[in-house]
Amino acid sequence: MDNYKILERIGEGTHGQVVQALERSSGKIVAIKCVRSLDKTSKNLLREIESLKALESNYVVKLLDHFCHNFGFYLVLEYVVSGLPEMLHDDDIILNDSQLKTYARMLLNGVVHMHATNIMHRDLKPANLLICSKGILKIADFSLSRLILANNDKQSGEDLCYTGQVATRRYRAPELLFGSVHYNQSIDMWSVGCILAEMQLKTPLFAGDSDMEQIAIVVHYLGTPTDETWPNRNEMPDYNKLKFTHCDPVPTNVLLPDIDNLLVDLIGKLIVYDANTRLKAQEALLQPYFFNEPLPCLEHKMPKPPKNHRQKLLPKQPEVIECMEKNFNHLYHILDETL
Known about the structure:
Layout: E1 4-12, E2 17-23, E3 28-35, H1 38-54, E4 63-69, E5 72-78, E6 82-83, H2 84-89, H3 97-116, E7 119-120, E8 129-131, E9 137-139, E10 146-147, H4 153-156, H5 174-177, H6 186-201, H7 211-222, H8 252-255, H9 261-268, H10 281-285, H11 309-312, H12 318-338
Antiparallel strand pairs: 1-2, 2-3, 3-5, 4-5, 6-8, 7-10, 8-9
Helix pairs in contact: 3-6, 6-9
């Protein structure tokens, strides 16, 4: 298995390390996701492969190859030089409203395609949104993705259910926080709302450090759930385990200060308790925000991240760098023996 030469560590996905590699035959730079514990992650790995095979969009990272070797499994993906967090926090790149609007539109276009293909991502967050050398945003890391099951429960008499242990806490929809296993693609739309807000605020909208704190923050800002705002809340397994002090919702324009009112309106239609009333991705794309000045930037005029963008923004503390170098050297030797 000498097809690839490992160059450097890029990062870490939900279930594996990601490295940059050179395809020897073509000289092409690729990204390789390395999963070492197949017994624990085989189901998620198969779902990720099937999802990526099914998705053909400029706004979704492409799967180029996959293979098994020496008790490990490897996904070969297109190499993408940067990510949304790097673009947002690079002091040398000042993103204007028009460019941020284009990132939002690219994200929603990717989600539209994903949902039209009956796939839920279930872990949308800035860290899983990559920016290629042409400035295009691409959705990545489908480790937790899931095919949306056909709704035949009324005929069979059985409820369709999924695992509730999905999505990163700060982007997790309320129904997931309260333990629901009956949900649909609307959980992705809650995450999109949080991401759109974070693109403006440069910090997570609901930044809880535990599940209880996350719930408390969401309830503080959205108000205590009522029959009007969340009719089916009592169906959530963990909802009645908690008692809430009554609080009124914080107005969305106070939650999101100094932001375009049309964007505030869009985000407000995504971060709602009742999943049935959240905008779908296609509906979100048709909101006035995208048709008002400043108009979205043309994609070919979007900022182009430099090739070494990730390395440029690495922490400067010597102890952090030393630790990362040790981890990478260990990974390099493992992969060098197997590829």
